[in-house]
Write a structure and sequence with these properties.
- Helix 3 packs antiparallel against helix 6, helix 3 crosses helix 8 and helix 15 crosses helix 16.
- The chain has 19 helices and 19 strands.
- The chain has a domain of 230 residues.
- Helices cover 21% and strands 9% of the residues.
- The longest helix has 14 residues.
- It is of the alpha+beta class and 701 residues long.
- The strands form 9 sheets. A 3-stranded mixed β-sheet has the order 11-12-14. It has a two-stranded antiparallel ribbon with strand order 1-4. A two-stranded antiparallel sheet has the order 2-3.
């Protein structure tokens, strides 16, 4: 893989900021310039993890991973990974998808559980309907931040809420074991627990995650996963936190027992995959351990209650004829044995002193198998055949229209600055191809007029107020900063106590300050590390910063941003044209407070976020260009984006005011979206229409 340094035009912008100019004025003072158009993704391979110590058969691993990802019996209450990633790798459901601001601790009354009320201050949605669990979203509910003058971010606010449009998961309850079904064991969860947040009347509905679901397609290229980057680049075999989690231990058996730590680089997808299986907002009722999860899954026939298409690009050759196409052959234990080396599963029951005493080694290590296998499947989901890719790879046979070309030119121009955060073949600075090795951090212009230090690819773009959700500026469960920028500064201070903040020592040691856009200095011997005076003066602008999402297939992956409050690309362009939703609020005592600020920084806003001087036609052209990044194989679910049948929960019969038990069985009646089994020929092979957009779903209701 080759990496190109950015051209000097952007450096001029940085130098203007270094001179103390306000960035907006600096940008106006500079001539408009364009960065090179990002290359095609064709032929760009992500850094591959070295799995030789773990994996025996890569094809078996891929089969195992795809089955695990799509199996709806994996989680409690029939929740699969795919339940939240079924539509171009994202989630297009419109009912029971609201989460209140449970990450928002900005007011004393929100502690310790965040804001648990739905809607605005009056409990309403923008459409005027009452908000709440089991609410069905309407087109008039978007955007969920509305101004009297949508072109002016300082105009009066017409509607705002800290609610998030996200994904429903499992019901509230306590894990109490498994139902005794030999072939298809399922979680047994207590149903007597009353959910204090996600209920209608006295009946619980499914819980909803606190951030919008991003797409899994091309996610293998991210350096770190999740919106806040907490899924480490190093997979420790058990949790998302890599080196941070010293308690993440596995059992190895080669004639004798060995308790061991695992740290596999370039495997952030596996770190991400082990998060939802222990999250009571996503895939489980609370209290199910990783080893217990393994005990449940390993005995099962993969996809036992789901149809597999005989033409499935991965599973078709192993689909089960004995069960008439329901599932694939064998058990999950059989596939683990085929895919993984025996020292990780052959040892029998783990003795006292090992990580999972009383469980078999295969059960105790199942999180390792799960993470690596699911990551292997997701690594196969690379969409590199969009109209844009074809035009870049073979201009003689594929070209962009005049409007699309105009949109691309604007996108890569300093007139809009889109490419400053969405560069490289993935159109995201948070991906591997976007920067040289060692470039985990950058120093770039901030809205304060100073250069500030950021985690590369993580930006505060002035969405909701920073205090509502700190993003990569937050901390892990061990109280250490998620931000590599904060760890890097801690490493270079002379204060010994700061060393305790360095949660990712391998990554921090690899950071090369000489790759930063605005270097602290030119001392190559120290990798251009900052002096103590520079550390004291530096703005570390990570609070309220989130991972810059890839823009490939963005037409299909709405709603948009980490909080899902924008329904269409047109609304997103309106957001950027007015310079985001940052506000400067007058407080008592004539104090003006920037909503993107958090002490000690007056603002954490990226310097690229300024009102844009573009026309309606320009905005329309940018949207037209963004649609050229859609891969029709994704749109039409053709291989490798085909899949087994899936039953996806979609709220409960009724609404936010009442839910119903129409068949009088004592249980509320859930509604579902039934996805058919799709082979490599995709939806057209079934005579079905290809995928639409989230906005389409809103207008169908």
């Amino acid at each position: 893989m080759t990496h190109k340094r950015r051209p000097p035009g952007r450096l001029l912008l940085s130098l203007a900021a270094l001179g103390g100019l306000a960035l907006a004025n600096a940008a106006l003072a500079q001539p408009i310039f364009q960065l090179p158009a990002p290359p095609s993704l064709k032929g760009v391979t992500p850094p591959a993890p070295d799995l030789t110590a773990y994996v025996k058969d890569d094809q078996a691993l891929l089969i195992l991973g795809k089955a695990l990802f799509w199996d709806q019996a994996i989680g409690s209450h029939d929740v699969a990974c795919a339940s939240c990633h079924f539509h171009a790798g994202a989630d297009s459901r419109v009912k029971n998808q609201l989460s209140p601001g449970i990450l928002d601790r900005s007011k004393p009354e929100y502690d310790p559980d965040g804001d648990t009320s739905f809607g605005d201050a009056a409990g309403k949605m923008p459409s005027g309907a009452m908000a709440g669990p089991n609410y069905r979203l309407k087109r008039d509910d978007f955007p969920m931040f509305q101004l009297v003058d949508e072109a002016n971010r300082d105009s009066a606010i017409k509607f705002q809420s800290n609610d998030v449009v996200s994904s429903q998961g499992a019901f509230f309850g306590q894990y109490i074991g498994q139902y005794p079904q030999t072939r298809t064991p399922l979680d047994a969860c207590s149903s007597a627990d009353f959910d204090p947040i996600y209920h209608v009347g006295m009946r619980n509905v499914r819980r909803v995650e606190p951030r919008h679901t991003p797409t899994t397609i091309n996610a293998v290229y991210y350096r770190r996963n999740f919106w806040d980057g907490r899924a480490s680049n190093f997979f420790n075999g058990a949790t998302p936190f890599g080196e941070r989690d010293g308690a993440a231990l596995l059992a190895k058996y080669s004639g004798g027992w060995e308790q061991t730590k695992v740290a596999i680089p370039n495997l952030s997808l596996a770190s991400q995959a082990v998060g939802p299986i222990v999250s009571e907002l996503e895939m489980i009722c609370r209290g199910r351990s990783l080893a217990e999860f393994g005990r449940k899954v390993l005995a099962r026939q993969p996809l036992a209650r789901q149809k597999v298409h005989p033409g499935d690009s991965v599973l078709g050759k192993v689909y089960s004829r004995k069960t008439l196409g329901q599932g694939i052959t064998g058990t999950y234990a059989d596939w683990v044995k085929r895919a993984f080396k025996p020292e990780w599963w052959q040892g029998g029951v783990e003795p006292a002193g090992m990580p999972a005493p009383g469980y078999s080694q295969m059960e105790g290590n199942f999180s390792l198998f799960w993470g690596i296998a699911v990551a292997r499947y997701q690594a196969s989901l690379i969409s590199d055949d969009s109209k844009y890719d074809r035009a870049k790879a073979s201009p003689a046979t594929a070209t962009l229209s005049a409007e699309e070309t105009r949109g691309l030119d604007l996108f890569r121009s300093s007139q809009t600055g889109c490419i400053f955060c969405h560069n490289g073949p993935l159109f995201s600075n948070a991906t591997f191809p976007a920067g040289p090795a060692g470039k985990w951090l950058d120093r770039v212009p901030g809205a304060s007029g100073k250069v500030h230090l950021i985690d590369e690819g993580f930006f505060n773009i002035g969405t909701r107020p920073t205090d509502e959700d700190l993003g990569v500026g937050g901390t892990d469960p061990f109280g250490k900063p998620l931000s590599l920028a904060r760890q890097y500064m801690a490493k270079h201070t002379t204060t010994t106590a700061d060393d305790a903040l360095i949660a990712d020592p391998t990554l921090v040691d690899a950071i090369d300050g000489c790759t930063m856009l605005a270097r602290f200095n030119t001392d190559a011997a120290t990798k251009c590390a900052p002096t103590q005076a520079q550390i004291a003066a530096e703005e570390v602008a990570v609070d309220g910063a989130f991972k810059s999402p890839m823009l490939r297939n963005v037409e299909l992956t709405g709603p948009y941003f980490h909080y899902g409050q924008y329904a269409s690309l047109d609304e997103v362009l309106t957001f950027y044209r007015r310079g985001g939703d940052r506000r400067v609020v007058n407080q008592p005592g004539d104090i003006r407070v920037d909503t993107t600020g958090k002490a000690p920084n007056p603002t954490n806003l990226s310097g690229a976020i300024v009102p844009l001087n573009i026309t309606d036609a320009d905005a329309k052209a940018i949207v037209a260009f963004l649609k050229t990044l859609t891969d029709d194989r994704v749109r039409c679910e053709q291989g490798p984006f085909d899949h087994p049948a899936l039953r996806v929960a979609h709220g409960v019969e009724g609404d936010q005011h009442a839910v119903y038990d129409t068949n009088h069985d004592g249980k509320i009646d859930e509604e579902y979206v039934e996805l058919p089994a799709v082979g490599a020929t995709g939806l057209p092979g079934l005579g079905k229409a290809c995928l639409g957009t989230f906005e389409d779903k809103l207008t169908q209701n």
